[in-house]
Amino acid sequence: MRRNQVAVVGAAETTELGVIPNASQLQLHADAALNAIADAGLKLSDIDGFATAVETPQQVCHYLGIKPTWVDGTSVGGCSFMLHVRHAAAAIEAGLCKTVLITHAESGKSMIGKLPRSTPADSLNGQFEAPYGVYGPPSMFPIPVLRFMKTYGITHEQLASVAVVQREWAAKNPRAMMKDPITVADVLNSRMIAYPFRLLQCCLVTDGGGALILTSADRAKDFPRKPVYIMGTGESVETPMVSQMETFNSSRAFKTAGPLAFREAGIAHKDVDHLMIYDAFAHLPLFGLGDLGFMPYEETGPFIADGNTRPGGKLPLNTNGGGLSYMHSGMYGMYALQESVRQMRGIAPAQVPNARISVCHGVGGMFAASGTIVFTNER
Amino acid sequence: MAEPQRARPKPTPETQHFWDGTKAGELRLQRCDACAHVYFPPRPFCPSCASRKVSIFKASGKGFLYSYVINHRPAAPGFTPPYAIAVVELAEGPRMMSNIIDCPQTPEALELDMKLEVAFEVLDDKITLPVFRPAKG
Q: What pLDDT digit, counting tens, does each position of A134-152 carry?
C-alpha cells in the first residue's frame, strides 16, 4: 500500500469509560460512533464503509441507520481494529468507498447485551486446551512468559516495572481508571492470579468503546481536525491455541505484522516518537519491543525497568496508561489506536512533545493475531 | 447437586484416533509419509507440506516442561487452585498443553526443562486425558 494516502479524520471514545451500567454493548457502539461523527463534522449519511468486530456489521449498521457499500467484519480479537484500519485504507485507495467508520464497544464489566464467549467441546481448543483448566485470558496469556524469562534472563522485577511505568502515564490521564502511584514491591505483593503474574500485571476489566473515521488524504485537509495519516500497516495470525505457538521466545504474528508496517512506512526504529504496544498482560510490551525489532529480547526488560519508556524517557510507551491502568474492555486495540491519534493530533493528556510518528501494535487472542499501524501527522 | 466437572473433550472424525489411543494407554501422534514432519493436533494431512499421506504412530510419551502457569483464580470447574497448566514439548517435537501430576504445584518443584513422561487420567468411559508426571530416574 502507498503511504499517507488515507487519513483518520474522526476519532472518539464513548462519552464515559469504566463502569457504564446504563448502556448495552450495542448502544456503546452507537455512542462511540456518534462522538466520532461529530468529531469529524460529518453526518451518518456520509458514511459509506463500515467495519466492526464481535458484533456483526449488519447489527451495528442497522442500529445506527448506516447504508454501507463496503463492510469488513474481521474479528480476530483485540487487534481487529488495526486490521480494519489496514483494510479500510486499501478499500479507500481502491475506490470501493470514500468514508469508513470503524466501531468497537464492549460491556466488558457490566455485561449488558454482551455476546457470550464459548469454547465448543469439539473444537481443537475444547479438546486439547480446555480440559487442562484454562479459564479465561489470565490462565492462558501468561503461559509463554516463564520460557521467555528463562531464555532471555528477564526478571520478575523487570516484568513488575511494566505496570509501575504505565501507572506513571495513567496518573497524567484524567480518564484513566487507575491513577495512584505503585511500586515494584506493590506489584510483587499484589494478589496472585496465575503465577508468575499477579493482579497488577493483568489488565483491567471495564466498559467502553471507540470509533474512527477514515477518508482519503486528499479529502482529509477539508475536515475540522488535523489529519492523521496512515503511513504503514501490517497484519498476521498464528494460532488460536497458545500451546501451539511456534515458540514462546517470540510471537510469529508480531514478527510478521510489525516489520511489514515498518517497511511499508519506510521508517527506522529511531524515527519512532511514540509507541503503543497492546498490554493485556505485563509481558506483551517485552515481546513487542523484541518482535518489532526495537532491541534484542534480552534488553527489553532492563530497558523498561531503567525508565526508558516512562514520561520523559527516550521511547514513550503506552502513554494513556495502557490496558493495565487506562482501561481494558476486552478488546483494547481501539483504545491504543485512539491514543496514537490523540498523540498525532497533539491533544493527548500526556502529550509527547513534537511527536511526528506513532507506532500502534495490537494483539488478538493469546498471541493468535496481530496488527500494526504506523501513523504520522506530516504528509 | 453434582460437583462441577472439568471440561470434557468431544472427539471429531479427525481426532478420534487420538482419543482411542489415550483410552488404550497410548499417546498417538501423526507423521507425514512424504516429508517425515511429526505434528499435533491431529488432522488428516501434513501442515508442513500438505500431503494427505500421513501415518498414526505411538509416541514415546517422553518430553520436557516447556512452560507453565500456576493458576490461582479464577479456577476452572473441576479444578482446585492452585494448579499448573503446562505446555510439554514431546521428544518427537510437537508440544501439547497438559497438567503435571505427582508433583507439588509450586515454582520450586516445577522446573523448566524437567523431564516428563505421559500418564493417563480416565475421565469417563469415553475420554481418557493424557497428563504428565516427572520422569523416573
A: 999 999 999 999 999 999 9
Gyration radius from chain B CA atoms? 16
**Residue A52 pairs with which residues in a beta bridge?**
A103
Locus of grid cell 523416573: B136
Assign domain B16-134 to a CATH class.
mainly beta
- C-alpha to C-alpha distance for A323 and A66, rounded to whole angstroms: 31
A133, A146, A242 ranked by CB distance to B6: nearest: A133
Nearest to B27 by CA among B63, B65, B57, B7: B57
Strands A49-52 and A70-72: parallel
**Residue A306 included in any domain:** yes
Q: Write down the pLDDT at residue A240.
A: 97
Tell me: ipTM over 0.90. yes
Residues from chain A that touch B79, judged by Cβ atoms under 8 A, are: 133, 135
SS3 for B17-76, per residue?
Answer: HHHHHHHCCCCEEEEECCCCCEECCCCCCCCCCCCCCEEEEECCCEEEEEEEEEECCCCC
Say what the pTM is: 0.97
- Concatenate the DSSP letters of all residues of A16-38 into one string: S-B--TT--HHHHHHHHHHHHHH
Domain boundaries, chain B: 16-134
Determine whether the interchain pair A143/B68 forms a contact, defined as Cβ–Cβ distance below 8 Å.
yes
Q: What is the DSSP letter of B126?
A: S
